[in-house]
Fold:
Amino acid sequence: MIGRLKCGYRRMRLGTRLALGLGVLSLMVFAVVGTALTTYMRDYLSTQLDEQLAQGQIAQSKNIEEHGTLTGKKYYSWFYAVYDVSGGKPVLRKPEDPGDLPKDVGSFTAVARAQMSSEKEVLRTDDLEGKGSYRLRACEFEPGTILVSAAPMHGIDDTVGRLVLIQAVAFGLALLALVVSGRGMLRRGLKPLSDIAHTARGITSHDLTDSARLPVRHDGRSGGPEVEELRTAFNTMLEHIDDSLAVRTEAEKRLRRFVADASHELRTPLMSVRGYADLFQYAAANDPEERDKHLARLRTEAARMGVLLDDLLLLARLDAADVEAPLRLEEVDLVELVQQAADAFRAGRTDHPMTVTAGPDPVRLRLDPLRIRQVLDNLLSNAAVHTPAGTKVSAEVCVESGMAVVRVTDAGPGIPAADQHRVFDRFYRVDKARSRDRGGSGLGLAVARSLARAHGGTLDLTSCPGSTTFTIRLPLGRTTGE
Structure:
Protein backbone atom coordinates (compact mmCIF):
# COMPACT_ATOMS: atom_id res chain seq x y z
CA MET A 1 0.00 0.00 0.00
CA ILE A 2 2.75 2.41 0.99
CA GLY A 3 4.71 1.44 -2.13
CA ARG A 4 1.72 2.25 -4.36
CA LEU A 5 1.30 5.60 -2.64
CA LYS A 6 4.97 6.41 -3.20
CA CYS A 7 4.74 5.45 -6.87
CA GLY A 8 1.60 7.57 -7.27
CA TYR A 9 3.32 10.49 -5.57
CA ARG A 10 6.34 10.23 -7.87
CA ARG A 11 4.07 10.27 -10.94
CA MET A 12 2.43 13.53 -9.85
CA ARG A 13 3.46 16.77 -11.49
CA LEU A 14 5.89 18.97 -9.63
CA GLY A 15 3.25 21.65 -8.97
CA THR A 16 0.88 19.11 -7.42
CA ARG A 17 3.61 17.66 -5.21
CA LEU A 18 4.66 21.11 -4.07
CA ALA A 19 1.03 22.00 -3.31
CA LEU A 20 0.61 18.79 -1.30
CA GLY A 21 3.84 19.43 0.52
CA LEU A 22 2.69 22.95 1.30
CA GLY A 23 -0.62 21.53 2.54
CA VAL A 24 1.10 19.02 4.82
CA LEU A 25 3.40 21.71 6.20
CA SER A 26 0.43 24.03 6.75
CA LEU A 27 -1.48 21.22 8.47
CA MET A 28 1.41 20.70 10.87
CA VAL A 29 1.57 24.43 11.57
CA PHE A 30 -2.19 24.56 12.12
CA ALA A 31 -1.99 21.56 14.46
CA VAL A 32 0.74 23.17 16.54
CA VAL A 33 -1.07 26.52 16.65
CA GLY A 34 -4.42 24.89 17.46
CA THR A 35 -2.93 22.74 20.21
CA ALA A 36 -1.14 25.72 21.74
CA LEU A 37 -4.27 27.87 21.58
CA THR A 38 -6.50 25.15 23.04
CA THR A 39 -4.06 24.43 25.86
CA TYR A 40 -3.74 28.11 26.64
CA MET A 41 -7.54 28.57 26.68
CA ARG A 42 -8.05 25.55 28.95
CA ASP A 43 -5.35 26.73 31.35
CA TYR A 44 -6.79 30.24 31.35
CA LEU A 45 -10.34 29.06 32.11
CA SER A 46 -9.02 26.65 34.77
CA THR A 47 -7.17 29.52 36.43
CA GLN A 48 -10.33 31.63 36.34
CA LEU A 49 -12.29 28.80 37.96
CA ASP A 50 -9.60 28.35 40.63
CA GLU A 51 -9.82 32.05 41.45
CA GLN A 52 -13.61 31.82 41.58
CA LEU A 53 -13.34 28.85 43.98
CA ALA A 54 -10.89 30.78 46.19
CA GLN A 55 -13.15 33.86 46.34
CA GLY A 56 -16.23 31.73 47.08
CA GLN A 57 -14.45 29.88 49.89
CA ILE A 58 -13.34 33.16 51.46
CA ALA A 59 -16.95 34.37 51.61
CA GLN A 60 -18.18 30.96 52.83
CA SER A 61 -15.51 30.82 55.54
CA LYS A 62 -16.58 34.20 56.92
CA ASN A 63 -20.22 33.14 56.84
CA ILE A 64 -19.47 29.92 58.73
CA GLU A 65 -17.42 31.81 61.36
CA GLU A 66 -20.16 34.42 61.87
CA HIS A 67 -23.32 32.36 61.47
CA GLY A 68 -22.18 28.73 61.50
CA THR A 69 -23.93 28.10 58.20
CA LEU A 70 -23.33 28.25 54.39
CA THR A 71 -26.81 29.48 53.66
CA GLY A 72 -26.84 32.30 51.14
CA LYS A 73 -23.24 31.75 50.01
CA LYS A 74 -23.80 28.85 47.61
CA TYR A 75 -23.34 28.68 43.84
CA TYR A 76 -25.58 26.73 41.51
CA SER A 77 -24.37 23.20 40.78
CA TRP A 78 -21.46 23.52 43.22
CA PHE A 79 -20.87 21.03 46.02
CA TYR A 80 -19.68 21.86 49.51
CA ALA A 81 -18.38 19.84 52.43
CA VAL A 82 -17.09 20.84 55.88
CA TYR A 83 -14.72 18.52 57.70
CA ASP A 84 -13.66 18.61 61.35
CA VAL A 85 -10.26 17.18 62.15
CA SER A 86 -10.53 14.63 64.95
CA GLY A 87 -7.89 12.13 65.92
CA GLY A 88 -5.86 13.05 62.87
CA LYS A 89 -8.72 12.18 60.52
CA PRO A 90 -11.18 14.40 58.67
CA VAL A 91 -14.77 13.89 59.86
CA LEU A 92 -17.58 15.09 57.59
CA ARG A 93 -20.17 17.36 59.16
CA LYS A 94 -23.76 16.70 58.34
CA PRO A 95 -24.64 18.89 55.35
CA GLU A 96 -27.24 21.58 55.76
CA ASP A 97 -28.81 20.48 52.50
CA PRO A 98 -28.52 16.95 51.10
CA GLY A 99 -27.94 18.53 47.71
CA ASP A 100 -24.67 20.05 48.94
CA LEU A 101 -22.90 16.71 48.48
CA PRO A 102 -22.83 14.08 45.72
CA LYS A 103 -23.60 10.44 46.46
CA ASP A 104 -19.89 9.54 46.53
CA VAL A 105 -17.86 11.82 48.83
CA GLY A 106 -14.64 9.85 48.54
CA SER A 107 -13.01 12.54 46.40
CA PHE A 108 -13.92 15.22 48.96
CA THR A 109 -12.51 13.17 51.84
CA ALA A 110 -9.28 12.53 49.90
CA VAL A 111 -8.81 16.26 49.24
CA ALA A 112 -9.53 17.08 52.90
CA ARG A 113 -6.97 14.49 53.99
CA ALA A 114 -4.41 15.99 51.62
CA GLN A 115 -5.13 19.45 53.03
CA MET A 116 -4.33 18.24 56.57
CA SER A 117 -0.71 17.61 55.56
CA SER A 118 -0.32 20.63 53.28
CA GLU A 119 0.66 24.15 54.20
CA LYS A 120 -1.38 25.70 51.36
CA GLU A 121 -4.69 25.10 49.65
CA VAL A 122 -5.08 21.84 47.74
CA LEU A 123 -6.50 21.88 44.19
CA ARG A 124 -7.50 18.72 42.34
CA THR A 125 -9.59 17.72 39.32
CA ASP A 126 -11.66 14.58 39.66
CA ASP A 127 -14.67 12.84 38.14
CA LEU A 128 -17.65 12.65 40.48
CA GLU A 129 -19.90 9.67 39.99
CA GLY A 130 -22.85 10.64 37.82
CA LYS A 131 -21.86 14.31 37.80
CA GLY A 132 -18.87 14.58 35.50
CA SER A 133 -15.56 16.38 35.93
CA TYR A 134 -15.25 18.81 38.87
CA ARG A 135 -12.54 21.07 40.20
CA LEU A 136 -12.05 20.56 43.95
CA ARG A 137 -10.43 23.02 46.34
CA ALA A 138 -9.74 22.51 50.04
CA CYS A 139 -8.73 25.16 52.58
CA GLU A 140 -8.40 25.25 56.37
CA PHE A 141 -10.29 28.45 57.25
CA GLU A 142 -9.83 27.88 61.03
CA PRO A 143 -7.76 25.38 63.03
CA GLY A 144 -9.34 21.94 62.89
CA THR A 145 -11.96 22.88 60.26
CA ILE A 146 -11.54 22.25 56.51
CA LEU A 147 -13.84 23.52 53.78
CA VAL A 148 -13.95 21.61 50.48
CA SER A 149 -15.69 23.20 47.52
CA ALA A 150 -16.26 21.63 44.06
CA ALA A 151 -17.12 23.54 40.89
CA PRO A 152 -18.21 21.81 37.67
CA MET A 153 -15.85 21.94 34.68
CA HIS A 154 -18.43 21.20 31.99
CA GLY A 155 -18.45 24.90 31.12
CA ILE A 156 -14.72 24.80 30.43
CA ASP A 157 -15.10 21.57 28.45
CA ASP A 158 -17.93 23.04 26.38
CA THR A 159 -15.94 26.21 25.68
CA VAL A 160 -12.83 24.28 24.74
CA GLY A 161 -14.88 21.89 22.57
CA ARG A 162 -16.43 24.80 20.68
CA LEU A 163 -12.98 26.34 20.26
CA VAL A 164 -11.62 23.06 18.85
CA LEU A 165 -14.58 22.80 16.47
CA ILE A 166 -14.13 26.40 15.29
CA GLN A 167 -10.41 25.83 14.81
CA ALA A 168 -10.98 22.61 12.87
CA VAL A 169 -13.48 24.27 10.53
CA ALA A 170 -11.42 27.44 10.12
CA PHE A 171 -8.14 25.60 9.64
CA GLY A 172 -9.77 23.11 7.25
CA LEU A 173 -11.18 25.89 5.08
CA ALA A 174 -7.86 27.77 5.23
CA LEU A 175 -5.97 24.60 4.30
CA LEU A 176 -8.30 23.91 1.38
CA ALA A 177 -8.00 27.48 0.13
CA LEU A 178 -4.23 27.37 0.59
CA VAL A 179 -3.84 24.12 -1.39
CA VAL A 180 -6.17 25.25 -4.20
CA SER A 181 -4.72 28.76 -4.51
CA GLY A 182 -1.19 27.49 -3.97
CA ARG A 183 -1.67 24.92 -6.74
CA GLY A 184 -2.79 27.69 -9.09
CA MET A 185 0.10 29.96 -8.11
CA LEU A 186 2.59 27.12 -8.44
CA ARG A 187 1.17 26.20 -11.83
CA ARG A 188 1.63 29.77 -13.02
CA GLY A 189 5.06 29.95 -11.43
CA LEU A 190 6.14 26.66 -13.03
CA LYS A 191 4.69 27.58 -16.43
CA PRO A 192 8.13 28.72 -17.69
CA LEU A 193 9.51 25.27 -16.81
CA SER A 194 6.71 23.67 -18.82
CA ASP A 195 7.58 25.98 -21.71
CA ILE A 196 11.22 24.91 -21.50
CA ALA A 197 10.12 21.25 -21.51
CA HIS A 198 7.96 21.99 -24.56
CA THR A 199 10.95 23.57 -26.26
CA ALA A 200 13.06 20.50 -25.44
CA ARG A 201 10.39 18.23 -26.91
CA GLY A 202 10.37 20.37 -30.04
CA ILE A 203 14.12 19.88 -30.36
CA THR A 204 13.76 16.13 -29.75
CA SER A 205 11.23 15.80 -32.55
CA HIS A 206 13.42 17.78 -34.98
CA ASP A 207 15.61 15.92 -37.45
CA LEU A 208 19.16 17.13 -36.80
CA THR A 209 20.75 14.88 -39.41
CA ASP A 210 21.02 17.49 -42.15
CA SER A 211 20.59 20.69 -40.11
CA ALA A 212 23.32 22.60 -38.34
CA ARG A 213 20.84 24.84 -36.49
CA LEU A 214 18.20 24.03 -33.90
CA PRO A 215 14.71 25.20 -34.86
CA VAL A 216 13.60 26.77 -31.57
CA ARG A 217 14.70 28.92 -28.64
CA HIS A 218 12.96 29.63 -25.38
CA ASP A 219 11.35 33.06 -25.09
CA GLY A 220 12.02 35.60 -22.35
CA ARG A 221 8.88 35.06 -20.27
CA SER A 222 9.44 36.02 -16.63
CA GLY A 223 9.58 33.34 -13.96
CA GLY A 224 11.85 34.65 -11.23
CA PRO A 225 15.62 34.59 -10.83
CA GLU A 226 15.84 30.78 -10.63
CA VAL A 227 13.76 30.21 -13.75
CA GLU A 228 15.66 32.97 -15.55
CA GLU A 229 18.92 31.27 -14.61
CA LEU A 230 17.60 27.96 -15.92
CA ARG A 231 16.37 29.63 -19.10
CA THR A 232 19.75 31.26 -19.65
CA ALA A 233 21.55 27.97 -19.07
CA PHE A 234 19.11 26.20 -21.41
CA ASN A 235 19.58 28.72 -24.22
CA THR A 236 23.35 28.68 -23.68
CA MET A 237 23.23 24.91 -24.03
CA LEU A 238 21.27 25.28 -27.26
CA GLU A 239 23.86 27.72 -28.59
CA HIS A 240 26.61 25.27 -27.69
CA ILE A 241 24.72 22.46 -29.44
CA ASP A 242 24.20 24.76 -32.42
CA ASP A 243 27.92 25.45 -32.61
CA SER A 244 28.72 21.75 -32.26
CA LEU A 245 26.23 20.85 -34.99
CA ALA A 246 27.67 23.55 -37.25
CA VAL A 247 31.19 22.24 -36.68
CA ARG A 248 30.04 18.68 -37.27
CA THR A 249 28.17 19.61 -40.44
CA GLU A 250 31.12 21.55 -41.78
CA ALA A 251 33.46 18.67 -40.92
CA GLU A 252 31.18 16.23 -42.72
CA LYS A 253 31.05 18.49 -45.77
CA ARG A 254 34.83 18.80 -45.77
CA LEU A 255 35.18 15.05 -45.38
CA ARG A 256 32.84 14.39 -48.30
CA ARG A 257 34.68 16.98 -50.39
CA PHE A 258 38.02 15.51 -49.35
CA VAL A 259 36.96 11.97 -50.30
CA ALA A 260 35.60 13.19 -53.62
CA ASP A 261 38.75 15.20 -54.38
CA ALA A 262 41.06 12.38 -53.28
CA SER A 263 39.15 9.93 -55.47
CA HIS A 264 39.38 12.35 -58.40
CA GLU A 265 43.08 12.99 -57.87
CA LEU A 266 43.89 9.30 -57.66
CA ARG A 267 41.67 8.36 -60.61
CA THR A 268 43.68 10.47 -63.07
CA PRO A 269 47.12 8.89 -62.48
CA LEU A 270 45.53 5.44 -62.22
CA MET A 271 43.90 5.91 -65.62
CA SER A 272 47.23 7.11 -66.97
CA VAL A 273 49.01 4.08 -65.54
CA ARG A 274 46.40 1.81 -67.06
CA GLY A 275 46.70 3.51 -70.48
CA TYR A 276 50.51 3.49 -70.49
CA ALA A 277 50.49 -0.14 -69.35
CA ASP A 278 48.36 -1.04 -72.36
CA LEU A 279 50.64 0.98 -74.63
CA PHE A 280 53.70 -0.63 -73.04
CA GLN A 281 52.24 -4.05 -73.66
CA TYR A 282 51.52 -3.14 -77.29
CA ALA A 283 54.95 -1.54 -77.81
CA ALA A 284 56.73 -4.49 -76.24
CA ALA A 285 55.10 -6.76 -78.81
CA ASN A 286 55.10 -4.51 -81.90
CA ASP A 287 57.39 -1.51 -81.44
CA PRO A 288 60.27 -2.10 -79.06
CA GLU A 289 61.56 1.46 -79.57
CA GLU A 290 58.48 2.91 -77.85
CA ARG A 291 58.74 0.55 -74.87
CA ASP A 292 61.28 2.58 -72.90
CA LYS A 293 59.29 5.79 -73.44
CA HIS A 294 56.07 4.24 -72.13
CA LEU A 295 57.94 2.67 -69.20
CA ALA A 296 59.31 6.11 -68.24
CA ARG A 297 55.83 7.54 -68.31
CA LEU A 298 54.60 4.68 -66.12
CA ARG A 299 57.29 5.50 -63.57
CA THR A 300 56.38 9.21 -63.68
CA GLU A 301 52.69 8.53 -62.96
CA ALA A 302 53.61 6.07 -60.21
CA ALA A 303 55.84 8.73 -58.65
CA ARG A 304 52.96 11.24 -58.81
CA MET A 305 50.69 8.80 -57.01
CA GLY A 306 53.43 8.14 -54.45
CA VAL A 307 53.80 11.86 -53.68
CA LEU A 308 50.03 12.25 -53.38
CA LEU A 309 49.71 9.27 -51.07
CA ASP A 310 52.66 10.45 -48.97
CA ASP A 311 50.96 13.84 -48.51
CA LEU A 312 47.67 12.21 -47.58
CA LEU A 313 49.42 9.93 -45.11
CA LEU A 314 51.27 12.88 -43.55
CA LEU A 315 48.04 14.86 -43.18
CA ALA A 316 46.37 11.87 -41.54
CA ARG A 317 49.24 11.50 -39.08
CA LEU A 318 49.16 15.22 -38.30
CA ASP A 319 45.41 15.04 -37.69
CA ALA A 320 46.06 12.20 -35.23
CA ALA A 321 48.88 14.02 -33.44
CA ASP A 322 47.46 13.03 -30.04
CA VAL A 323 48.06 9.38 -30.99
CA GLU A 324 51.38 9.66 -32.77
CA ALA A 325 53.69 12.64 -33.28
CA PRO A 326 55.27 12.57 -36.78
CA LEU A 327 57.96 15.08 -35.72
CA ARG A 328 61.60 14.57 -34.77
CA LEU A 329 62.63 17.67 -32.90
CA GLU A 330 66.16 18.96 -32.59
CA GLU A 331 67.78 22.32 -32.04
CA VAL A 332 68.27 24.10 -35.38
CA ASP A 333 69.23 27.56 -36.63
CA LEU A 334 66.17 28.76 -38.53
CA VAL A 335 68.22 31.30 -40.51
CA GLU A 336 70.48 28.57 -41.83
CA LEU A 337 67.47 26.42 -42.73
CA VAL A 338 65.92 29.28 -44.73
CA GLN A 339 69.26 29.90 -46.51
CA GLN A 340 69.41 26.23 -47.53
CA ALA A 341 65.86 26.35 -48.91
CA ALA A 342 66.70 29.57 -50.81
CA ASP A 343 69.83 28.01 -52.33
CA ALA A 344 67.82 25.01 -53.53
CA PHE A 345 65.20 27.37 -54.96
CA ARG A 346 67.80 29.38 -56.87
CA ALA A 347 69.26 26.20 -58.33
CA GLY A 348 65.91 24.90 -59.56
CA ARG A 349 64.16 28.20 -60.40
CA THR A 350 66.71 30.32 -62.16
CA ASP A 351 63.98 32.45 -63.75
CA HIS A 352 62.87 33.83 -60.32
CA PRO A 353 65.31 36.13 -58.47
CA MET A 354 65.58 35.11 -54.81
CA THR A 355 66.74 37.20 -51.83
CA VAL A 356 66.99 36.38 -48.10
CA THR A 357 66.89 38.95 -45.30
CA ALA A 358 67.96 37.99 -41.78
CA GLY A 359 69.61 39.53 -38.75
CA PRO A 360 73.22 38.97 -37.75
CA ASP A 361 72.31 36.56 -34.95
CA PRO A 362 71.10 33.00 -35.47
CA VAL A 363 67.51 32.11 -34.52
CA ARG A 364 67.79 28.80 -32.73
CA LEU A 365 64.76 26.75 -31.70
CA ARG A 366 63.63 23.15 -31.44
CA LEU A 367 61.88 21.85 -34.55
CA ASP A 368 61.87 19.08 -37.10
CA PRO A 369 64.26 20.43 -39.79
CA LEU A 370 62.97 18.06 -42.50
CA ARG A 371 59.35 19.10 -41.96
CA ILE A 372 60.05 22.84 -41.70
CA ARG A 373 62.21 22.55 -44.83
CA GLN A 374 59.21 20.86 -46.49
CA VAL A 375 57.05 23.86 -45.49
CA LEU A 376 59.60 26.33 -46.91
CA ASP A 377 60.01 24.33 -50.15
CA ASN A 378 56.21 24.21 -50.59
CA LEU A 379 55.87 27.98 -50.11
CA LEU A 380 58.77 28.80 -52.46
CA SER A 381 57.57 26.31 -55.07
CA ASN A 382 54.06 27.78 -54.82
CA ALA A 383 55.50 31.27 -55.45
CA ALA A 384 57.37 30.06 -58.54
CA VAL A 385 54.50 28.02 -59.99
CA HIS A 386 51.85 30.74 -59.68
CA THR A 387 53.86 33.75 -60.83
CA PRO A 388 55.32 34.55 -64.26
CA ALA A 389 59.06 34.26 -65.00
CA GLY A 390 61.14 37.11 -63.62
CA THR A 391 58.94 37.64 -60.56
CA LYS A 392 61.03 38.49 -57.50
CA VAL A 393 60.75 36.18 -54.48
CA SER A 394 62.11 37.05 -51.02
CA ALA A 395 62.36 35.43 -47.60
CA GLU A 396 62.73 37.27 -44.28
CA VAL A 397 63.68 35.78 -40.92
CA CYS A 398 63.20 37.72 -37.65
CA VAL A 399 61.99 37.47 -34.06
CA GLU A 400 58.76 39.22 -33.01
CA SER A 401 56.99 39.03 -29.63
CA GLY A 402 58.74 35.85 -28.57
CA MET A 403 58.05 34.14 -31.90
CA ALA A 404 60.37 33.18 -34.72
CA VAL A 405 58.89 34.61 -37.94
CA VAL A 406 59.57 33.66 -41.56
CA ARG A 407 57.91 35.63 -44.35
CA VAL A 408 57.95 34.32 -47.94
CA THR A 409 56.89 37.06 -50.37
CA ASP A 410 56.50 37.19 -54.13
CA ALA A 411 55.69 40.16 -56.37
CA GLY A 412 53.20 38.24 -58.49
CA PRO A 413 49.62 39.10 -59.42
CA GLY A 414 48.29 38.09 -55.99
CA ILE A 415 45.48 35.77 -54.92
CA PRO A 416 41.85 36.85 -55.43
CA ALA A 417 40.12 37.82 -52.18
CA ALA A 418 37.40 35.22 -52.80
CA ASP A 419 40.02 32.44 -52.81
CA GLN A 420 42.25 33.57 -49.93
CA HIS A 421 40.20 31.89 -47.18
CA ARG A 422 40.30 28.54 -49.02
CA VAL A 423 43.90 28.30 -50.26
CA PHE A 424 44.76 26.09 -47.27
CA ASP A 425 41.93 23.64 -47.98
CA ARG A 426 42.96 20.23 -49.19
CA PHE A 427 42.84 19.75 -52.98
CA TYR A 428 41.89 23.38 -53.52
CA ARG A 429 43.38 25.22 -56.52
CA VAL A 430 43.04 28.92 -57.17
CA ASP A 431 43.41 28.36 -60.93
CA LYS A 432 40.93 25.58 -61.78
CA ALA A 433 42.22 25.41 -65.37
CA ARG A 434 45.83 24.76 -64.35
CA SER A 435 47.07 21.27 -65.20
CA ARG A 436 48.01 18.87 -62.42
CA ASP A 437 51.47 18.46 -63.91
CA ARG A 438 52.18 22.12 -63.24
CA GLY A 439 49.71 23.06 -60.56
CA GLY A 440 50.23 20.13 -58.21
CA SER A 441 47.60 18.19 -56.26
CA GLY A 442 46.37 21.09 -54.12
CA LEU A 443 47.79 19.56 -50.92
CA GLY A 444 50.99 21.63 -50.57
CA LEU A 445 49.56 24.55 -48.55
CA ALA A 446 47.35 22.23 -46.50
CA VAL A 447 50.41 20.17 -45.56
CA ALA A 448 52.42 23.33 -44.83
CA ARG A 449 49.80 24.75 -42.44
CA SER A 450 49.35 21.39 -40.68
CA LEU A 451 53.11 21.09 -40.16
CA ALA A 452 53.30 24.64 -38.78
CA ARG A 453 50.49 23.86 -36.33
CA ALA A 454 52.16 20.60 -35.34
CA HIS A 455 55.14 22.72 -34.26
CA GLY A 456 52.84 24.93 -32.18
CA GLY A 457 52.94 27.72 -34.74
CA THR A 458 50.79 29.26 -37.46
CA LEU A 459 50.84 29.86 -41.20
CA ASP A 460 48.92 32.88 -42.50
CA LEU A 461 48.40 34.60 -45.84
CA THR A 462 48.14 38.24 -46.85
CA SER A 463 47.75 39.05 -50.53
CA CYS A 464 47.01 41.96 -52.81
CA PRO A 465 47.88 42.70 -56.44
CA GLY A 466 51.68 42.87 -56.69
CA SER A 467 52.42 41.18 -53.33
CA THR A 468 51.61 37.84 -51.73
CA THR A 469 53.10 36.96 -48.32
CA PHE A 470 52.98 33.70 -46.41
CA THR A 471 53.97 34.19 -42.76
CA ILE A 472 55.22 31.34 -40.58
CA ARG A 473 55.31 31.92 -36.80
CA LEU A 474 57.03 29.38 -34.56
CA PRO A 475 57.38 29.63 -30.79
CA LEU A 476 60.85 30.10 -29.37
CA GLY A 477 62.00 27.66 -26.68
CA ARG A 478 59.45 25.02 -27.75
CA THR A 479 59.63 21.77 -25.76
CA THR A 480 56.40 20.03 -26.80
CA GLY A 481 56.96 16.61 -28.33
CA GLU A 482 60.27 15.98 -26.64
In short: The longest strand covers residues 132-142. Confidence is low (pLDDT under 50) at residues 433-439. The chain is about 55% helix and 15% strand. The longest helix spans residues 224-286.
